[in-house]
Design a protein that fits this description.
The structure holds two protein chains of two kinds. Chain A has two domains: 221 residues, Metalloenzyme, LuxS/M16 peptidase-like (Cytochrome Bc1 Complex, Chain A, domain 1); 180 residues, Metalloenzyme, LuxS/M16 peptidase-like (Cytochrome Bc1 Complex, Chain A, domain 1, 2-Layer Sandwich). Helices cover 42% and strands 21% of the residues of chain A. In chain A, helix 1 packs across helix 7. Chain A is α+β, with helices and mostly antiparallel strands. By secondary structure, chain B is of the alpha+beta class. Chain B is globular, with a radius of gyration of 23 Å. Chain B is built from 15 helices and eleven strands. In chain B, 43% of the residues lie in helices and 21% in strands. In chain B, the strands form two sheets. A six-stranded mixed β-sheet of chain B has the order 1-2-6-3-5-4, with helices on both faces. The chains are: A alpha+beta, B alpha+beta. The interface between A and B is large, with 71 and 72 residues.
Chain lengths: 429, 427
């Protein structure tokens, strides 16, 4: 077992990769009651075109299948796993993102039993035609719930505008008609391909003794048979750097319009430290441009164009990336134009180093605060690790970013052809 | 089991300090709770005040100045918010700051934070008779938008409508954010007068949690924040609840895809009662978790919904059910939910449902104290209810609940209102 001590954070991370390829990480947290564990596969909604394990013919699977599979893993021949967890005092959950599916629990007692339950249920699929059909009603309601949610619609709307072909533009849960095509066999195909231990990461954080956890996991895994690890072939069509659509408007039953603008990342091919630096640089830059201490924010707020719902974010994964800026607004068109103008103005004005230093301090403090949260640590560590980055090197990396780096990112990312806007407007307007 | 630390309580002139010394966080959290009975004529004003208090002070006149300060303080968190707890409308002012021991320089962050919060409370930007006009104007617009956004989120909208219908004529029917139509007419003078009244009269509690030296921090707060003694703090008003003879059914129509079915039950039991433990377990078995009756029957068996949950409103004696369903499944869903409630009332509960639920509540309580904000929230619940209930006591209380106790509280639960938000022109 490897041991890394991070001096400034006063945290020790333990890790080991098992013989079957499973990556295990353990972060003990003294004084905490709770233990939180995530068991994550590097498989999400975008992985809809791949070569199944043991085959040489690529297949395309129905939209929403990764998320469907996440739901179905909880059901077993003798009932559902939630029951087992709650008997052991744990609350369990799962989520599916573009690139990951994570299963998790948190508990303040019976940690070892719960950890075994977590690993065992994820590694023992049980799909039947009957249970698959039953789930379609439940997920159908989940889809409709999101359909009525303007924040979700504007978020997906702007991503849809950006991409011509990349499956990131497809809603994670799919649609009612796409999930109708899901069968028990297609679920098994996805499961066999993406749930191999070598494609997965287990993270345990909380009041635990690392040696005990690792030996439990090893013993559990040695009792199971797996095929040797294989590289998974995933296919993505070529995606041009320009956006597919410059603007879209969605009418909904709302009172306040919403607006989200986005810039598509032209070269989402970075890995490791390079991606880490770019991502953190982008976070700094967005905060510099539109954070609450920026003049731009103050202006937009005073002009009555934004409120507390205004936010921004940068996402970069393998093969796709984008920045998003927006929120509720009285005038979506005007906000769209103002955001673009402000970015252009910053390009010509240059970046103020003093403000960046202040923002670096802020980022350090926020990072420290997030270390209070076991959920944040486990989920973000996993995401970073899947992109060959180390979460615990964030503070160090912030220190290395220069004003020049930021100027480069500013010029590289925020291009007119990569810019698009999505608006939600009240139905009766 | 290790004992959970209880706060050290220091009564001070004008407010009460609650200090928890713990090493487990990398931050220190300071939370100021300002409480007053819901006054219908002042609900919107109070909500606007919570907004204006974060918009500028004497030394930091705009939110731009404030945010630059916060960044310099290693990204200290600073928020104000407004909420209801029972018949009180409560302003919360909260900060969390990094613990200095993790920083490379010697910034006195905690001290700076306490000074800043004292300034927010005592010296908001004003000219002696009114708040700064431009800050008030900005915050009015933001508040209006915030109130509108309840309508845009159909789950919150349905909650609000259910509460309005169920508590018609009572102060709890008011939404904590206030009324949109009242925002515009509030003047900067009026708001300032109301603020002075708040600072003079409201009951104020200050919680500080982190790796602190309690004695020292206590002295520091007492020297930077001086308030007058409260004259008479209002006691938790007990609102008489009369059970309806007939269930109240309310339909709203909007152009939406999913129906929102929200059902309100009354119970006479509130947070301060000894039966509170039993009603908490009752709710857990009924709809609080993913092993509960509602989840299993509405979702897993009938496949009608993605979520079907219940929760108790601790201080008013209410239990709410929430589910998102297809319009055409209204009758079916209502009948399954009623059937589950009948099972609860007739004691059709297995030993394992009881023990699972107790385990889950225990787990929730213990997890809460791993997070400084939810810990403050737990502590403040007791404060609002006017009782002392330690976390350990609470856990023991839950463990001791018997089937008999649940049968007894079940008798107090009565159906009050069924609210359904459905699509336009849908039957």
């Amino acid at each position: 077992m490897n041991e890394s001590y991070y001096d400034q954070l006063k945290e020790t991370l333990y890790s080991e990769t098992l013989d079957n390829g499973l990556h295990v990480y353990i972060l003990p947290k003294e004084g905490f009651n709770k233990t939180y564990a995530t068991f994550t596969t590097k498989y999400g909604s975008v992985d809809n075109h791949f070569t199944p394990l043991g085959s040489d013919k690529p297949v395309k699977v129905p939209d929403g299948i990764a998320h469907f599979l996440e739901h179905k893993l909880f059901e077993k021949e003798d009932g559902d796993v939630f029951q087992d967890f709650s008997k052991q005092g744990a609350s369990a959950n799962a989520f599916t993102s573009f690139t990951r599916t994570a299963y998790l629990f948190s508990s303040t007692s019976n940690v070892k039993e719960n950890l075994k339950t977590l690993i065992d249920f994820v590694q023992a699929p049980y799909f039947t035609e009957k249970t698959v059909e039953k789930e379609k009603g439940i997920i159908g309601q989940e889809i409709e719930m999101y359909d009525d949610n303007p924040d979700w619609r504007v978020y997906f709307g702007v991503i849809e505008n950006m991409f011509h072909r990349h499956p990131v533009k497809i809603d994670i849960a799919g649609t009612i008609s796409s999930i109708a095509k899901i069968s028990k066999d297609s679920l098994y195909t996805c499961y066999e391909t993406f749930y191999h231990p070598s494609n997965m990461l287990l993270f345990v954080v909380g009041n635990v003794v690392p040696e005990e956890i690792i030996s439990l996991v090893k013993e559990n895994q040695s009792g199971k048979e797996f095929t040797p690890p294989e590289k998974i072939e995933r296919f993505f069509e070529e995606e041009p750097p320009e956006v597919a659509k410059k603007k879209s408007v969605i009418k909904m039953t709302v009172q306040t319009p919403k607006c989200m603008v986005g810039f598509k990342q032209a070269t989402p091919k970075r890995f490791g430290d390079e991606r880490l630096k770019y991502e953190l640089g982008m976070n700094l830059l967005l905060d510099y441009l539109f954070g609450q201490s920026s003049e731009n924010y103050e202006e937009l707020y005073t002009e009555g164009l934004i409120d507390q719902s205004f936010s921004f974010d940068y996402t970069e994964e393998t093969e796709f990336g984008f920045s998003l800026i927006g929120g509720e607004t009285s005038d979506p068109d005007r906000l769209t134009d103002r955001i673009f103008e402000m970015i252009e103005a910053t390009k010509s004005k240059g970046i103020d180093t003093e403000a960046i230093d202040r923002l670096k301090k802020k980022k350090m403090g926020s990072f420290l605060r997030s270390m209070n949260s076991p959920e944040y640590i486990a989920n973000q560590f996993t995401r970073f690790q899947f992109g060959d980055m180390n979460l615990f090197k964030v503070v160090e990396m912030y220190d290395k970013i220069t004003t020049e780096d930021l100027q480069n990112i500013l010029n590289d990312h925020f291009k007119e052809k990569a810019f698009t806007s999505c608006q939600i407007r009240p139905k009766n307007s | 089991m290790t004992k959970t630390k209880e706060p050290r309580i220091i009564p001070t002139e004008g407010y009460t300090l609650h200090l928890v010394e713990t090493e487990k966080y990398k931050t220190t959290t300071i939370s100021i709770q300002i409480k007053r009975k819901i006054e219908e004529e002042n609900v919107t004003k109070r909500s606007l005040l919570a907004q204006v208090l974060k918009s500028g002070t004497k030394s930091y006149p705009s939110s731009l100045h404030i945010h630059r300060l916060l960044e310099d303080m290693y990204g200290a968190g600073f928020v104000t918010s407004i909420a209801k707890k029972g018949d009180y409308q409560i302003i919360t002012i909260r900060m969390d700051v990094s613990n200095e021991k993790f920083l490379l320089d010697n910034t006195q962050l905690l001290e700076q934070s306490l000074d800043f919060l004292a300034e927010v409370l005592l010296y908001p930007l004003n000219d002696g008779t009114k708040f700064d006009e431009s800050n008030v104007k900005k915050e009015k617009r933001v508040l209006k938008q915030k109130i509108q956004s309840i309508y845009d989120d159909k789950m919150r909208f349905a909650n609000k409508r259910l509460v309005e219908e169920m508590f018609k004529g009572q102060s709890y029917a008011q939404h904590a954010f206030g009324k949109e139509e009242e925002v515009e007419s509030i003047t900067a003078e009026e708001l300032f007068d109301y603020y002075k009244d708040v600072i003079e009269k409201d009951e104020i509690d200050i919680y500080i949690i982190g790796d602190i030296n309690g004695e020292e921090v206590g002295r520091k707060v007492q020297s930077s924040l001086r308030l007058n003694e409260r004259i008479n703090t209002d006691e938790a008003p007990v609102q008489e609840v009369t059970a309806r003879h007939q269930e109240n059914v309310v339909f709203d129509e909007q152009d939406v895809k999913q129906g929102k079915l929200h059902i309100g039950y009354r119970t006479s039991i509130t947070f301060a009662d000894p039966e509170y433990y039993a009603i908490q377990v009752f709710n857990g078995i009924f709809g609080g978790f993913s092993h509960s009756k509602l989840f299993l029957n509405v979702r897993e068996k009938a496949s009608l919904a993605y979520y079907a949950v219940s929760r108790i409103e601790s201080h008013v004696g209410a239990l709410f059910v929430m589910s998102g369903i297809e319009f055409k499944n209204y009758e079916k869903a209502v009948s399954i939910i009623k059937e589950q409630m009948d099972h609860m009332k007739s004691g059709d509960i297995t030993d394992s449902e009881l023990s699972q639920t107790k385990e889950m509540i225990r787990n929730q309580l213990l997890e809460s104290v791993d997070n400084p904000n939810s810990w403050v929230d737990l502590l403040y619940h007791s404060r609002v209810a006017g009782i002392r209930r330690s976390i350990d006591e609470w856990i023991e209380g839950i463990q001791a609940v018997t089937m008999e106790d649940i049968r007894n509280v079940a008798d107090t639960v009565t159906l009050d209102t069924i609210y359904f938000l459905k699509g336009e022109g849908q039957k």
